[in-house]
Amino acid sequence: MQETELPLQLRDFWFIAAASRDLRGAPVARTILGEPVVLFRDGSGRAAALRDRCAHRNMRLSAGSVRDGAIECPYHGWTYRGDGTCARIPSLEGDPPPHVRVDSFPTREHDGFVWICLGDPASREPFRFPHAGEEGWTTFTMTTRFEAGAFSCLENFLDVPHTVYVHQGWFRNRAARPTRAVVRAERDGAAVAFDEEPEKESVVARLLFPRGGRLEHTDRFVLPAISRVDYRFGPDRHFIITSQCTPVSEHETDVYTVITFRFGRISPLVRLWFEPLSRKILRQDIEILREQTAQVKRFGGPKFTYVASDLLGPHILRHWKDAVAHREPLVSETAVTIVF
Q: Model-level pTM?
């Protein structure tokens, strides 16, 4: 395992497999932590997840069809229920033998997403997106395939200094200023709070933040692979950008982003330009991470150098290692001054 690859032992956590709207009539194929999975709705309408391989001749079940709440293999018609048991073998008289089955995985469905755990979720439950769908809040979602590993995505989403260069003019410009940041290592992740004034000449500040106000900006990592960024200007101006990273392979990640905000009575109007702006900024991150991945492949693996202004990346790696080793993470608080 490379230093920055999400450990396979984190299979005991929940990851988003698909948007709820994706599960209609046809089966849906996904790859999560390198595991091929097929998703469909069973006879009661619940989301089901099976290993995407027929027990008979290894055919992709996702290439088949869903009939009466069960999934039918396209090769010989073997049919499986949502719990993985075999419901029908057309060429065999009578019921299928009880040992014929495929592996199934636990699922949960909320906030418009289907979550899956490839291992043992124990007492854990999937993450809840803050304020999603609540009265007074406006919510929209984006689903994006990144050509980058989960670590690279998480570190990018929670990294302030890159915004000066990758998103120049949108958030900040090159007129750097010292900014105090307080980093807290927590049991389920890590967070950094910035004592920051918005860059008054940036596009985002001019559109969203009133002059003379004080910005409350917090970045947070939540196990296993979730980033949350909060921008708050008083009780009526609060923007939350939450991204759940589902690892597909070493260099591919499906990112499910939920943007939730409140902006008083004009929130629906704000969305008309805030959503396309968010997508434009996301495309800039897609491109820079694609270039980073190409370099990692070119040189045979990542080689990172950390300095004090790399605030959350080391905490992500440390929490992954602690989770794999079943260690209690250290709780701490550190103040750092960075320049951006």
A: 0.92
